[in-house]
Each structure stands twice: as structure tokens, then as C-alpha cells.
């Protein structure tokens, strides 16, 4: 399902259990169903500043055990707060794996809802984010943090 959002379009996909994908580029195959419609409604409310948490069921597939642990840690970051890559590395008991945290973030299949945009450099600076280019990704990350009233 394609959803127009303030910075362009995103594509949603789901299986019978939950949302499987939020993509910043068009998916070759995607379906509209009750779960993608639920996600679209919640994302629209999020962008309007009317939602601070999501209730749409998730069905995260793939990823290594390490990546899935990182995604679980990301999901725990509260709305309007940020964590450093080091904070996430420590949360998954891999304090030396800061670069691996960045790689796991880049493989996050459900950005925004699994809020990898809330992870910033330990110096408080924005670093990498999914998008069509590095700058576009940082612009999206900045926008999402702005929606959550986070000053960067």
C-alpha cells in the first residue's frame, strides 16, 4: 500500500500477522489489507502530531539474532527521546558493536514504527538514515525528530 506522507511516499506491506515492511522506495509486491490500512491510519495520525505510540501488530521477519535484538531495543526508545548508538550497543550487551548497531538500523524493515530515527551520534549529531541518498535520509530523520519535538 502506498501512503503519501509529508516528505514524499512510503510503502507498507503486511502478512496475516502484522506489518512486515515500511519502505521509502516502491515495493515490487505489496498488498493493501486491514493491517496496512491500520498502519496507514496510525502513521497519518503520527505525522499530524496526534499519535505518540503505535498499536498496529508487527510481523518482523528475517534479520540475524543480533539485528532482531537491536530492533527490539529500538522499539523501546520512547517517543520524543533519543539514544546514541553506544546506548543501543550497551542495551543489547554488545558495547563494542557501535558500527554493527548502525548496520542493523539500516536493515530495520519497519522504520518510523521501530524508531531507528531516534538513534543519534554520541555527540548529539544526526548520522545516517534510510532514504534515497544520505542527505535525503538525514532530512527524513530530522523531520521525524521534529514531529516528535526533539531538538537537534
From TrEMBL:
**Domain Methylated-DNA-[protein]-cysteine S-methyltransferase DNA binding stretches:** 65-150
Does the keyword Transferase belong to this entry?
yes
User: What is the enzyme's main class?
Assistant: transferase
Q: Which reaction does it catalyse?
A: a 4-O-methyl-thymidine in DNA + L-cysteinyl-[protein] = a thymidine in DNA + S-methyl-L-cysteinyl-[protein]; a 6-O-methyl-2'-deoxyguanosine in DNA + L-cysteinyl-[protein] = S-methyl-L-cysteinyl-[protein] + a 2'-deoxyguanosine in DNA
Annotated ranges, domain Methylguanine DNA methyltransferase ribonuclease-like: 4-60
The answer to whether keyword Ion transport applies is no
Primary subcellular site in the record, as a coarse category = cytoplasm
PANTHER family the record matches: METHYLATED-DNA--PROTEIN-CYSTEINE METHYLTRANSFERASE (PTHR10815:SF5)
- Name recorded for this polypeptide: Methylated-DNA--protein-cysteine methyltransferase
This chain's source organism reads: Enterococcus rotai
Amino acid at each position: 500500500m502506498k501512503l503519501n506522507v509529508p516528505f514524499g511516499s512510503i510503502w507498507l506491506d503486511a502478512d496475516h500477522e502484522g506489518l512486515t515492511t515500511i519502505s521509502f522506495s516502491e515495493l515490487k509486491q505489496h498488498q493493501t489489507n486491514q493491517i496496512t490500512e491500520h498502519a496507514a491510519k496510525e502513521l497519518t495520525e503520527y505525522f499530524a502530531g496526534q499519535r505518540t505510540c503505535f498499536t498496529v501488530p508487527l510481523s518482523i521477519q528475517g534479520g540475524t539474532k543480533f539485528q532482531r535484538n537491536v530492533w527490539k531495543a529500538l522499539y523501546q526508545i520512547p517517543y520524543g527521546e533519543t539514544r546514541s548508538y553506544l546506548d543501543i550497543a550497551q542495551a543489547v550487551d554488545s558495547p563494542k558493536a557501535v558500527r554493527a548497531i548502525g548496520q542493523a538500523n539500516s536493515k530495520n524493515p519497519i522504520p518510523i514504527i521501530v524508531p531507528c530515527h531516534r538513534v543519534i551520534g554520541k555527540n548529539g549529531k544526526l548520522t545516517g538514515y534510510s532514504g534515497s541518498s544520505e542527505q535525503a535520509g538525514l532530512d527524513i530523520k530530522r523531520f521525524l525528530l521534529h514531529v516528535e519535538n526533539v531538538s537537534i
